[in-house]
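Alpha/beta hydrolase
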Amino acid sequence: MKTLYKSYLAFAAMIFSLLLTSVQVNAQKTAPKIKNVVLVHGAFADGSGWKGLYQALTKKGYNVTIVQNPLSSLEDDVKATNLALDKQDGPTILVGHSWGGTVITEAGNHPKVAALVYVAALQPDNGENSVQWLQTAPPAPENGVLNPDDKGIAYYDKAKFHAGFAGDLSKEDADFMFASQGAFYAQGFLTPITKAAWRTKPSYGIVATEDKSIVPSIQHAMYKRSNTKITEIKGSHVVFISQPEKVANVIVEASKN
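Tokens:
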């Protein structure tokens, strides 16, 4: 009986060891190669809009940093992004929304950036600016971007902000976004890219299929031109707020490749 019991214990120990090894191997396969994520917001917004995506990513074990763009120029926004990248302890996924796509296209040359994720974002090439792409298709009727004022600051028409910018959010959430946005100096839209990082870094692009601020056809055209891996997600221009888990999944995919 003792011999049988010892044999049983030895067999159980072997099975446990095999199961533990299997779990460890699977964990290694699924664990992200890159744990750092830096999020760059766009115009007519600020960093608070990333809260839901921040929560989705941190629950998955990522170290997330949110850039507060000054929105005063492309150069200033790139500088703010580079400061955040300098603080990362290793390879980083750089994510940009809308105007933030132009910012990460330039800032993505930082040596710590391993991949780029464009979220309903602009993606110019060398020598191109943001306006060039915004003019390649007629704007949606809901679009409410106004001409710059006498200080050079562009605004979004408050009456159109909900439908044109954040149509799949509640009116209360859209009102908060409008109230918390930064002052965007329109000259940034006219500043050309000097070195497009997507030419040398793996790139992923999310097309927001219900976008009224950067219509989906423009997003598709930019991403196809650059051989960016495209994921369509049903959502407004702020799809990262309305669909944080789906946007997080694309970032997770970028972190594992």
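The first strand starts at residue 36 and ends at 40.
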